[in-house]
Amino acid sequence: MKKSNFVILVLSVFGGLMFSLGMCMALIPEWNLFNVGIGLGCAGALVLLGAVIVYRKSAGCAPIRFSLKNVMTTVYAIASALVFGTGMSMVLVNTEMMIQGILIGCAGILMFLGLIPMIKGLR
Fold first, then answer.
1. What pTM was computed for the model?
2. Do 108 and 85 meet the contact criterion of CB atoms below 8 Å apart?
3. Residue 17 and residue 118: Cα distance in Å, rounded?
4. How confident is the model over 16-57, as pLDDT tens digits?
5. Distance of CA 91 to the CA centre of its chain
6. CA-closest candidate to residue 51, choices 101, 12, 94, 6
């Protein structure tokens, strides 16, 4: 394993753990750590963004171009993740809304599947 790949692996794991722990801290009311959780989650997101930058630099990739297509694809991916997460939350938190949560989660998965032709295209 190259040294740069190891650094990216460590950054990704560390950033992912920070982000997920921060979101747990913010979303579990029994912990009473909402503000700290938001801060830790944002720090984890910044570490993950740094990992992407380090990866692209070490792989010799060109900088990310900001075009309307890239921005709209990112917005669509975020919306897909929010729909999927809403369905998961409905299933896990409120058992009375299980059927609706499963349906909304399936809609989020279908939205994720729509990303493949959006990014790679159909041939």
1. 0.66
2. yes
3. 29
4. 999 999 998 988 888 899 999 999 999 999 999 999 998 998
5. 19
6. 12
